[in-house]
Amino acid sequence: MANVKKYTDQIAKAQKGRDVRDAIVNAINAVSDENNEYNQVKTEILEAQTDITEKVAKNEHTEQTFAADVKKAEALKQGLDSNIEQGTALKGQLDTTVSTANTAKKNLDSTNATAAQRKTDLDGSISTAQKLKGNLESDISQGTTLKQGLDSDITQGTALKSQLDTTVSTANTAKKNLDDSNTAAGKTKTDLDSSNATATQTKSGLDSTNKTASNLNTSLGEKITEGTQLQADLQTTGETAVNNLQTEANKQIQNITAAGGGIENALSNFFALRRTGKVYTTRIYKYDISTSPTGVKLNDNEGLVRKPSTNTAIGQDDYREIGVFMHFPCNFTVDNKGFNHVTALQGQPDFKKTGKVDVGEVTMSAWVGITDNPEYVDYHYSDSPNEALGLRPMGESINPDGTISPFMIHGKYGAGDIDGVPYSSAGLILANGSQKGGKPVSYTGLIAYMRKKGSMYVGTTNWDLFYKQLMMIILYATTNSRSVMAGCNSYSMQEMAAVAETGVTRVILPKAKANNYIVGSYVSVGDIGSNTNKDRYYAYMHNLAYDVKILKIEPVDDTNSAIYLDTEPFNTTLTTCISTMPWRTGSTDSVLGSDGSPFSNTDNKNPFKIQGIETGYGAYEVLSNVFMDIVTDEDGTPKRDVYICMDASLLTTDMNAAKTRYKKVAAQVTYTAASWKYISKCFVDPVLGIMVPTETKAGSTTGFCNGLYTDSGTSGQREWLSLGGLGLGTVYGLWILNAYTGVGFASWDIVSGVSPNGTRGEWQAAA
Asked: Which of 10-14, 386-390, 548-552, 590-594 has the lowest mean pLDDT?
């Protein structure tokens, strides 16, 4: 008889459904085996019974004839009776076994039913848990949304209060400045009277000169009258002050121009009258002494405040009327010897901001110095030499022949392409290396591309970047540029259309996704079909609309909103993708002050300008005259030597030749082992105009607060990528360096500018 209890014990001890199943199968197999044996024995018994019956009948039929066989038959019967008795006993045993098997089967059926019920209960528990998980995630999402809305309300309220405080402070400060300006104007008038008297004694054409002087005196007299009226205007708005100040400065320059000598002579005279010899200093403590990026303003910089503006609010600006910080939009050219020329100022009839022109910001030439102390670095900026501080001219102030220019120029906009030629003018898509952009914007590619304008034109240079970094330190006393103007570093969105439409200029998205886009920013739309790679490099990402402006975002029903675009009609499908793109040139032109962003300085989605120079578009800016050469230390660490070309005519794609022609910086870029690390220390070279990251111990809010990335390559050259792309986040800023792409690498998120600073002369201090 099969040991069924062994299997029922296994079922009782089973922890898993699979163990129960195996025990049941084993028990059934054992019972089945015994059933087979029982059936075989039963068959044999039945066959034996049949045989006996036949023999009994035969014996009865032949009993009389075969009497001699009776005893034998009786003996055989006795044996058969014994066999029958044994068979009956065996049958009883088999019946018992069958009954036991039936009982075991019933128990197994009950166990299976229990297991099935447990599985049903478990499935129900899993379903309930999934529902609870979904409800929890929904609650978390709603809570996050509510928190973001609350944070936004608090931020907006704080910003509005700050704007109100700033407006009141600006009006008071501007009134005081205008009082000072009127006093200075009176003094200037007296000085001009004296100059006219001197001119009368030393020059011929006495009548003509006196007439010119009289006109100038009249203009200055009008300025005093206008200044009185401007005092009242300033009590209402700071924007009026900016416009009137720039307008008045242009009037003075134009009056000087009319007296003879041209626009550059007029700028020279205008700036000369405003040189004071004052020194504006900011002290930044070294990381080992203080990890804070916030410095201290010293000397003539002490107590001065500048706050960035937006399109609707002007920030406080105590630097507005200080000559060395005045800047004017201009048109510029570069001649074939590398000299810069101002051809027109904004406000003059021949000035152009758009089209085939180059727009820059012109300022007076300046002097810079660095005092490197064991505990801190002092950054000095002045309009005049200062031997005690060891100041030297900014590189942009040194002409190719080594003389000092009265002014310096920086490209105002990034480079856009018109008919295959790059221009620094407003309203352009930034030239880039995507399949749709198709321009060679890389270190090597820019050499030939910029020479389409002339032999001495270049893209963004180290001098252009150094000036922006220096202005951040002097004006805001910080190395955390994101804390002042964040730039576009968290605006990389790509969403699929929620509704298919025909002949439209919009893309419909779920409301929550549509509301993440900014009216006034730029996007591309592409029907990507079966493609899964959404890299903006590919042409199919732009095949419906390329880098077009968002005009408005409006709800279309309870669930969705439509993003309306400035473009020709197209058809959308469920494989249509809308991608944010870098901002176009001129996006900061409506910002009211010298510095600031269109809609927000801190939302990480807007470009910004500093000293009128636009940057932070949401793309890397590659330096066109700088490259890094990978060298390996004795310990095997692959650091990077830095080379700077000081003469645009020497730019070359032959890297071995470049290393013999260019200037080598006395510091190496430290190694980060193919990872982003935050910069804690920079080697500052004011002579070559560069800040080289040499240590990475900081975080996103300490040290220089920006990231450095160097790949693990042990040889070759890399291009210098500054600023950063749409989605870089906290590593982004004026000090970021991405040092992992080859010198010929171009892509959709790498752009540059048009710079007049590709050829800088050697300055020798007077003996």
From this structure: 10-14
Neighbours of 101 (CB within 10 A): 20
Q: How far are the Cα atoms of 33, 308, 487, 607 from residue 611, in angstroms, in the given order? A: 97, 10, 15, 14
Each residue of 203-239: pLDDT tens digit? 444 344 334 434 433 443 343 334 434 433 433 344 5
CB-CB contact of 549 with 505 (8 Å): no
Our measurement of the distance from residue 556's CA atom to the centroid of its chain's CA atoms, rounded to an integer in Å, reads 30
End-to-end CA distance of the chain: 121
Q: Which two tokens stand for residue 163?
A: 């704007």
Specify the residue for token string 């201090």.
765
The secondary structure of 445-500 as a DSSP string is HHHHHHTTT-TT-BSS-HHHHHHHHHHHHHHH-BS-GGGT---S-S---EEE-SS-
- For residues 471 and 521, the answer to whether their CB atoms sit within 8 Å is no
If you average pLDDT over every residue of the chain, what do you get?
A: 82
Helix (H, G, I), strand (E, B) or coil at 136: helix
Tell me: the pLDDT tens digits for 686-720?
999 999 999 999 999 999 999 999 999 999 999 99
- Please state, in angstroms and rounded to a whole number, the distance separating the CA atoms of residues 527 and 56: 99
CB 330 within 8 A of CB 346: yes
CA distances from 574 to 507, 571, 577, 579 (A): 10, 10, 8, 15
Residue 369 contacts residue 392 (beta carbons within 8 Å): yes
Question: Distance between CA atoms of 435 and 541, rounded to whole angstroms?
Answer: 10
Which tokens sit at 559?
């669930």
- Residue 691's DSSP bridge partners are 684
CA-wise closest residue to 757 among 605, 646, 608: 646
Check: CB of residue 756 under 8 Å from CB of residue 727.
no
Residues 6+ apart with CB under 8 A from 548: 522, 523, 524, 525, 565, 566, 567
pLDDT digits (tens, 9 = 90+) for 137-152: 555 455 455 455 545 5
Residue type present at position 124: G
**Phi, then psi, of 563 in degrees rounded to 5:** -100, 115
Q: Compute the half-sphere exposure of residue 582: CA atoms within 13 Å on the CB side of its CA.
A: 35
Give the SS3 label for residue 576. strand
What is the C-alpha separation between 462 and 646, in angstroms, rounded? 10
| 570 vs 72: CA distance, rounded Å | 113
Q: Which helix (H) or strand (E) holds 173?
A: helix 70-202
CB 406 within 8 A of CB 299: no
Closest to 723 measured CA to CA, from 638, 616, 607: 616
Say how many C-beta atoms besides its own lie within 10 A of residue 75's C-beta: 10
SS3 of 359-400: EEEEEECCEEEEEECCCEEEEEEECCCCCCCCCEECHHHECC
